[in-house]
Structure formats: structure tokens, C-alpha cells
Amino acid sequence: MKIINLTSKLALLAGMAFVASCSSNSSADKKTDSTNVDTSTAATASMTAIKATGPVPEWGKSIKPEMQAVIEKLASYGDKPIETLSAVDARKNHTPTDAVMDLMKENNITLPAPQVDTVGKEIPVTGGNIHVRIYTPKAGTGPFPVIVYYHGGGFVIANLDVYNASAQGLAEQVGAVVVSVAYRLSPEHKFPTAHNDAFAAYEWAVKNAASIKGDPKKIAVVGESAGGNLAANVSIMARDKKIMVPVHEVLVYPIAQADMNTDSYKMYANAKPLNKAMMAWFTDKYLVNMGQAKDPRMSLVMANLKGLPATTIITAEIDPLNNDGKMLADKLKAAGVSVDSKNYEGVTHEFFGMAAVVPQAKEAQAYAADQLKSAFKK
């Protein structure tokens, strides 16, 4: 990849800053909050072409070669399908993050020094405490805008380390303090624990923004997959509880409805790294009973969406949740909410964190960062 000018170089650095988010988890949350431990930011140096070696998968005929290479690497670990495992064992599986990082090593793509400092903190929630990791830009003195970030994992797997790259990338690209939230996971903590934890973390950020070099008037929420569902719910709860509503929300392939017979669920039932069977497994593990799948907190398309902040929705073509994001965008627009959305072709669920190796991820991350920066300027 030839860098022809400074603008292109800066775009590369920014775009690569979310190297490795994913919906699985290779270990429990270690609460290690040093930026020296990292799947975190972006690859610089020489990006060589990432190539797939096998045939195009039946479930994704339009898949881009770089995306296919990640899926092939993930398959090479030989892990058992998540939907066949207990939650404890599923959390031990390799992740798309692992695949991206291994491809980076094989192609001599290196990581730059972090542009943020990090610190961990325990914050109180109903029934105990949860951990948050706070990312603060090294450049500037603040007050910085604040982003409260929620990771994916179907409410069951993943942790702050697995999604470190997304949180750090947001902080670096937007120039914001990011509060990444380790909400409690199911089945140990059933619905609606994750939703309540998510709001408690947002409320804590609103009340404590100044103490973390943040601007309490400029707070946004961002989430991926299950985290996208949580981010939208935080906005709804803030509206209903009459506290400051986020200035913007970015929802990346959010879980937004209960019907697993949509066109995208049918077309990509066997896709990787997320398939229909995994979604059924996640739903069963998080909910007390399947009737709760139609609760408006789970099925956002059934919620009252009026008065929510301007929303950015990012979807992936080869993803059972593709229709979820599009349906939610339509419902938000019908409720009078300003929505900007983009669908990225040839990529799968979890592509967003793969900017080091997947060009569409670099584009999506730059788009999300621009949307947030524009919202914070208003």
C-alpha cells in the first residue's frame, strides 16, 4: 500500500486504530489497564496484501479477500463452535482479534506507541461493582468530550481486553476520553443486568466527567453488537429518567429485534464469526425465558424511540444482524430521530475492529470518528 501524502498517512494511522474488536473472548477480564498490554491500536509501517488461501465460503460469496483471510485464520485454531459449549468454555475460544493479530505478525504489520493513558476503576452498581477502563488522550489538557463504550459478545462472552482496540481507537481518533464498560455477563447475571449496568456506567460518567478530564455536556455512547443494543438502551433510559441524553450514539451491527427469520438471518445462517445458532445460544444464555426476547429493551424496534439523539448505524453485509440494523434505522427515522447509516459490502460481523487488515473496516472507523467529532462540535 503506497502512502502518497501526509493526509493519506494520517488517515491510515487513524483508520488502523481499532485493530481488534470481536464478539468472543479468549480469557476472563483481567482488569489490566496498562496501554502496554495490547491488541490495541493501529498498525503502521508496511501493510502487505492480506490474501485468502482457500475457496470462497458458501455462506459468503461476496466476501472480500482480506475478510476471508481473517475467517480462515480463525478457523485454523480448531475451536469447537460456541453454540456447543458452556459459557465458561466459550469464553476460552480464540477470537477474531486473535486472527487479526496473527495476520499482522505474519505480514510484519507493527503497532505504534499508544496515544492515550489508561486507568482502571471500580464503580458502584446495584448488587455490587463493575470495572471500567478509562482512556485519556496524552495530547491536550481537556476537558475532552466523553464516549461511554460498550463491547459486544451477546451479553455472554468477551471483555475489555478483547475490545481494547475499539475503545483506544475511539479515544485516539476522536480526541475523547473513553469509558469502556465491563458490564456483568450472563448466565451468571441474567437479563436485564447488563442493561442496568450499562446505564449505571453512563450515569457515573455524567456525574464524574469533570474528574476524568471530560466535558459533562459532551457525552456520547458507542456500542458493538450486544453493546450496540446497550448503547441505544442507555439513550432511552436517560430520556425516561430525565437525565442528560447522550449527544450522539453510534450503533455498530446492533442486536435490535427478536425475529431470527429475517432475510439476513436466512441468508447468513451459517456465516462466521457470527451465525444464527450462536444468536439463539446467546439469547438463551442471557434471558430468563424466551418471552423476554420481545421486551423492548431486547427488541429495540418495538421501543419508544422518540427523542433519542442523532444516531449513526453501521452494518455488515455478511451478517445475520444486517436486517436488525436496517430495521432499527427505519424505526428511528419514523420516530423523528436523525439517522446516518452505512452498510459495508463483502464483510462480516466484527469487521469493524479489523482496520489493520480489512480496508472496509478502516473506512467504517473513519466514518464513525467523523460522526462523533461532528456531534461534539454542535
TrEMBL record:
<protein>
    <submittedName>
        <fullName>Acetyl esterase/lipase</fullName>
    </submittedName>
</protein>
<dbReference type="GO" id="GO:0004771">
    <property type="term" value="F:sterol ester esterase activity"/>
</dbReference>
<feature type="domain" description="Alpha/beta hydrolase fold-3">
    <location>
        <begin position="147"/>
        <end position="352"/>
    </location>
</feature>
<feature type="signal peptide">
    <location>
        <begin position="1"/>
        <end position="28"/>
    </location>
</feature>
<keyword id="KW-0732">Signal</keyword>
<dbReference type="GO" id="GO:0004806">
    <property type="term" value="F:triacylglycerol lipase activity"/>
</dbReference>
<dbReference type="InterPro" id="IPR013094">
    <property type="entry name" value="AB_hydrolase_3"/>
</dbReference>
<dbReference type="GO" id="GO:0019433">
    <property type="term" value="P:triglyceride catabolic process"/>
</dbReference>
<dbReference type="InterPro" id="IPR029058">
    <property type="entry name" value="AB_hydrolase_fold"/>
</dbReference>
<dbReference type="GO" id="GO:0005829">
    <property type="term" value="C:cytosol"/>
</dbReference>
<dbReference type="Pfam" id="PF07859">
    <property type="entry name" value="Abhydrolase_3"/>
</dbReference>
